[in-house]
């Protein structure tokens, strides 16, 4: 829960209790490993956490090139097929709300392994779904179980790191998990060359089994028993109520959720925009999606290696939101024909800029929110993830309300989402006020 006696440096996102480097917290638990052992396997743990955070883009992006094929194969309208994305997102949102507090009570490993096992089963069921309705149901279950990897990976990072080191680690995860959206749609497009959309889910089953085995063998427990919460639902609700009572944490949570909606409006609509409106092949779409993901990864690495520690996280976040806003305005102007009939190239450039800006926006948003949390990192991570995926799930069907022949709804949803994110950031987080207080305390 956020500390009620937080200092002015806390309010600026740079709390006095937060050092600028990794904290050597004792790590013990189910595996009996100490922090030295964890550091010796640091690279492997980083890769495992990256794999867990890559679960959503794997489940989403390998499937994206197949959306038009699913529409035809199951004789369902595009808006209904897009509900398979919405269901998965909704499951991930609700699942994080449950698994996060569970990990605060029982540790990180057991809820994670249980969630991964159910995720594999649900993905296998998606591969044999006979109708679009059953596919939506199985995707909901897939999202509920897959949420364990997302929320617990963030909580593990909070267990191990503080301050600037946490921001750098989130940027590293952005690099690792960013490989998934680069490879996934390209790989998905190639899978569609030799099989149908069901084969995509078969591949996801195999990858899920492999990741579950690695987690079982290599990821140690990072939450010592002494730091776990023994309470039940009542204590969980109390912890979450305390988090939501923190105006600044809530501001970052809402701003992050609507920023994610901007991103997911692109993820949900781009297969139809690029392939149906602009006539690109699944392979071309996969290539463009990969290029955009490369931009996100590069921006994330610039954030972690160059900006963090040199420029305040709030300032970088402000610039990132500004760039997303400009790109969203450009997309709306192009899709409504203000500049005449825009081709695939200028639209792709605007989408590239928007996606790249996410690389400096999302990790800093998460870092600034988690910096305000000393305890209940699982609950805080759950609130952050739930808000993001829930708002993204609402945004997903909105991009298809006007059918498959226009990209205007995508641009409208993106611009509206980022504008709401900006309002939440400025009104609740009050970055200018926080910087002024911080500068005054230093003088």
| Mean pLDDT rating | 78
Percent helix? over 70%
The biggest beta sheet is recorded as: none
Uncertain stretches of 5 or more adjacent residues: 1-36, 436-443
Report the end-to-end length measured between terminal Cα atoms. Answer: 30 Å
Q: What's the tally of helices?
A: 18
Radius of gyration: 21 Å
Structural class: mainly alpha
- Oligomeric state as shown: single chain
N-to-C series of helices and strands: HHHHHHHHHHHHHHHHHH
Total beta-strand segments: 0
Shape descriptor reads globular
Our estimate of the beta-strand percent is: under 5%
Word description of this protein:
With 443 residues, the protein is an all-alpha fold. The protein is built from 18 helices and no strands. The protein has helices at 8-11, 35-40, 42-53, 55-61, 67-73, 78-106, 109-127, 132-160, 163-194, 197-218, 233-245, 247-277, 282-307, 313-335, 344-370, 377-398, 408-429, 431-442.
Features:
443 residues; 18 helices; disordered C terminus
SSE topology sketch:
Layout: H1 8-11, H2 35-40, H3 42-53, H4 55-61, H5 67-73, H6 78-106, H7 109-127, H8 132-160, H9 163-194, H10 197-218, H11 233-245, H12 247-277, H13 282-307, H14 313-335, H15 344-370, H16 377-398, H17 408-429, H18 431-442
Helix pairs in contact: 3-8, 3-9, 3-10, 4-9, 5-6, 6-7, 6-8, 6-16, 7-8, 7-10, 8-16, 9-13, 9-15, 12-15, 12-16, 12-17, 13-15, 14-15, 14-17
